[in-house]
Amino acid sequence: MGFRKDFAWGVASSSYQNEGSVTADGKGLSVWDVFTHEEGKVADKSNGDVASDQYRLWEKDVALLEELAVNSYRFSISWPRVLPEGIGRVNEKGLDYYDRLVDALLSKGITPYITLFHWDMPYELYLKGGWLNRDMPRYFAEYAEVVIRRLSDRVQHWITQNEPQCYISSSLENGEHAPGLRLGKKDLFLAAHHSLLSHGYGAQAIKAAAKTRPVIGYAPASWWLWSPLTENKEDVEACRNKTFAALENPLGGTGFWLDPVLLGRYPLDFLQTWEPYLPRISQEDMKVISEPIDFVGMNVYQTYVGRAGGEGTCENVSHRKGYAKTMASWPVTPKALYWGPKFYWERYHKPIVITENGMSNEDWIHLDGRVHDPQRIDFTHRYLSSLKRAAEEGVDIRGYFHWTFTDNFEWSRGYEERFGMVYVDFETRERVIKDSGFWYRDVILSNGECL
Ligand code: GCO
Question: Average pLDDT for residues 178-198, to the nearest whole number?
Fold first, then answer.
């Protein structure tokens, strides 16, 4: 049975990590353009000023996508490239770039999946309070409308936001990501609520302005995923409960970010535990946040492993001595792509798109001029086999986007992590398809039958 005949096979990227040209053609600054120029924020003291240079090399990259035989490509739009101040004045040259890219993709039979927000908030809006500002949801909806009016005659697939866990928790709680703040719980929950409201208003704006029937998704990180050590029902139940509990780690959690969007309410354990720190949460807000969408995106790299402990607890048995891990020291845990989709499907009954999955690897160009990356091939084979099992058991999985297309700027890690199926020399910006890219092409051409 395997994957659906219309399965979306793709690779993913994001504007700040790939485009470069951060002031070209009237683009405004994002919080990342400013943050990466501050001392001590990026491991290798680099920034995304050039990144993978895709703003200039987009035609070469579309040709590479065709060579990879992907039928879909997930990329994000730089909000400040389209609205330099975040609201008001539209930068038509910024929109022209995405117009060209969409037309080139469609000419190759590649379906665009566009993420509207992948962390590069306009700096001017940060100065207005960013996610702490109650007007941000409206600002986001206005931005979404500008993009939809220009592209929705040709683009149907939209992802409102990518990984609120990162742009709220990593950015405003521990300060690792732009703009690098360390806020208290009350401000964090206010910012989180506004970001969820932005998603809802964005979904409404897409539906109101779209010229073709939109297919709307939302892509939180699947950080807080627990997979059972064994498949006996006690372990499964313990891990399912822990995955959606919002008690221990609300801002990194699954239930906190998805229950409001897909069930129309925050998790009860969260509301009870954190009540003193919460903003006013009206029924009107929850109605906006839970504006119906078409799929849930899952960015899945790894999972914790648990087993049933006493009194319904879930004991953490994740790390065995010498466990397999990637260059980013993330454990290799293929079962994440079985249990994650299974648990989400059982809870939300919403079609699933794997919007990110991949690994950082120590890649270089070998003496034969190729980039041999057997670890990425084995990693991806294992994860896709798990996903295929979930699909064959009835989980409605609509697509898989490998993270990432070309090596790019990895946020606070700079260029020290290579996630791409296409190697980039960051001096020359030369591209070389890695062995994993050719392997993935064969998987796509067989629609996963060869796994
Ligand atoms: C994320 C982001 C990507 C990262 C990737 C590797 O999921 O954190 O969406 O931009 O680059 O996941 O960390």
Answer: 97
Which residues line ligand 1 at a C-beta cut-off of 6 Å? Answer: 14, 17, 162-163, 166, 221, 299, 356, 403, 410, 419
- Give pLDDT, residue 187: 97
pLDDT tens, 125-134? 999 999 999 9
Give start and end residues of each alpha helix (H) in 83-154. Answer: 92-107, 123-127, 136-151
Mutation probe of ligand 1 site: the residue of 52, 54, 163, 405 with most atoms within 8 A of C-beta: 163
Share of the chain above pLDDT 90, in %: 96
> What stretches of 50-122 show up as alpha helix (H) in DSSP?
54-68, 79-82, 92-107
Burial 123-142 (b: 16+ CB within 10 A, else e): bbbbeeebbbbeebbebbbb
Which of 145, 291, 356, 410 does the annotation list as catalytic? 356
Is 163 labeled as catalytic in the residue annotation?
yes
311 has pLDDT over 90: no
Whether 356 sits among the annotated catalytic residues: the reply is yes
Q: Which atom of ligand 1 is nearest to the CA of 162?
A: 9
What pLDDT does 383 receive? 98
Predicted local distance difference test score (pLDDT) of residue 246 = 83
- Half-sphere CA count of 314, side-chain side, radius 13 A: 25
